[in-house]
Amino acid sequence: DVKVTQSSRYLVKRTGEKVFLECVQDMDHENMFWYRQDPGLGLRLIYFSYDVKMKEKGDIPEGYSVSREKKERFSLILESASTNQTSMYLCASSPDRDRAYNQPQHFGDGTRLSIL
Amino acid sequence: AQKVTQAQTEISVVEKEDVTLDCVYETRDTTYYLFWYKQPPSGELVFLIRRNSFDEQNEISGRYSWNFQKSTSSFNFTITASQVVDSAVYFCALSEGQAGTALIFGKGTTLSVSS
After folding, report:
1. CA distance B35 to A102
2. pLDDT tens across A56-95, in order?
3. Which residues contact A42 (CB under 8 A, 6 or more apart)?
4. Three-state SS at A97
């Protein structure tokens, strides 16, 4: 069965800290995605990656960066956390790069991040 | 530009009622894909269905059914005889048929089913 694992369910950090959110998938998927989910705004794409060491900006990349050193792992980095980055963060993956547009994405359980 | 509208923010029903969740989309492409996801209180989004733009057949899976109408750009989701376990946030999503594109999600509809 497909499994996307996010390292933390809940995380509390302080303003200005560098924050790492980790995501691992065990299905050998090429595509990985980071979203944030806020009430009334739905899911918004932050970054995605179709290959190792490759990244593409989504709709709201400001204040974030990503790293994909290995195929199974996709990290989201908040360089200097701010209170407006308090949110639910969801990681997802899908199998094939060339068919990412028509493939269901498999999601992790999410990380609820609070920045104080 | 792509857009997905779920006009119903919250819906409350009593068990055994039927409920329809609306989804209206906008796209300029002739090839596109539509998805529905369920997010229970545990947080993980669960894939429910995918439909491509060339397949307008309605689909039924147990108590769930989907009605795709290109003429009105809608892809509505009906739950028959709702149950408390159906309580969740439901998202409709759209993807255009091009390599390099990602899903565009609607803002979601929160369904509450009471006993």
Report:
1. 9
2. 999 899 999 999 999 999 999 999 999 999 999 999 999 8
3. B91, B105, B106, B107, B108
4. helix
Measure in Å the smallest separation between the Cα of B37 and chain A Cα atoms: 9
Closest Cα in chain A, distance from residue B111 (Å)? 14
- For every residue of B10-78, DSSP letters joined together read EEEEETT--EEE--EEE-S-SSEEEEEEEE-TT---EEEEEEETT----EEETTEEEEEEGGGTEEEEE
Tokens 């376990």 correspond to: B85
Q: Pairing mode, if any, of strands A19-25 and A73-78?
A: antiparallel
Q: How far apart are CA B37 and CA A43, in angstroms?
A: 12
CA dist A37 and A90 (Å) reads: 7
Q: What tokens were used for A57? A: 């900006």
pLDDT at residue A2 above 90?
no
Per-residue DSSP letter, B84:
G
Q: What angle do CA A45, A46, A49 make, to 5 degrees?
A: 95
Structural contact between residues A58 and A114, judged by C-beta atoms closer than 8 angstroms: no
CB contact under 8 Å between B91 and A43, yes or no, is yes
Residues of B in contact with A50 (CB under 8 A): 100
